[in-house]
Hints:
10% strand
Amino acid sequence: MCIILLKSKKKxxxxxxxxxxxxxxxTYSEISNQTGYSRMQLxxxxxxxxxxxxxxxxxxxxxxxNSNNSAPTKEIEYIKEFKNQYPSISISQFMDIYHEDIIWNxxxxxxxxxxxxxVRSKSFFQQLYKKEGWKSPIKHKCFKGDKNYHPLRDPSxxxxxxxxxxxxxxxxxxxxxxxxxxxTLDDATDEILSGYFMPTECQLGYCHTFKIxxxxxxxxxxxxxxxxxxxxxxxxxx
Length: 238
């Protein structure tokens, strides 16, 4: 039996962009298996995606027309107008606010339909920031080569002292769509405490994750004391 894997340029570009930005840990072999592109082709695409927007690279070579996924002018203008409310904001923060206040807001559904607004990836907003000359107040240092070195921190000596949280976009369900897994884990043991899926990394996803963690895990003594002070809890069994 012969299995033919159809190539997915859009998925290849998105995975390469996330790999370059350090958003996911994935090898070229894994990208090749998921997209049908060879290692040599992925290397060429990797060089192109560092210079151009993904939507620009998805322009059809024969017709010269934009791909169906490219943002129309009216959508870009709407985002630019919305951005005026937040002159100094990071890319991730603006993306979260835009999705929650506009895309998922029931009161804004008329605008969503009128301007054909969609959920957009972080790479989309990164390219938009670059194209419009918007500055992000958060700058991430590069720790490669002879540049700044980031020393490793020792893990916490005891369980429960520090909870780490992060979100990882990936095709978790193997359906060709990315989903962000929001997780909390214990710094001392690396034990995963809770997790929650959302279409993109967002504040709501972290809220659900912490809610699950707090409902399942045994509360720290100091946390109990804080709850007693503010909520008048006289006794709680641990």
